[in-house]
Write a structure and sequence with these properties.
It contains 4 helices and no strands. By secondary structure, it is mainly α.
Length: 77
Amino acid sequence: MSKRGALLGGYTLLMVACEDSDLPRVKSLLPSPTLNDKNQSGYSALALCVKISAAEVAKVLIAQGADINSVNNVRHM
């Protein structure tokens, strides 16, 4: 794990909690200096929430200042 808390694939603990849709854990990790960090695929914690339809978690991230205009590295054809 790096100084900023990056895990395998560039995931942060916050991203893992978001992908698990674990609202209590997300709240326990906020505020976070890694809020707008991206994993190796370019997904932020907010993008991971949107990807799995975790609306309540996404609302909390947005209230904390998550970048709603962030884009990932996925190319659409």
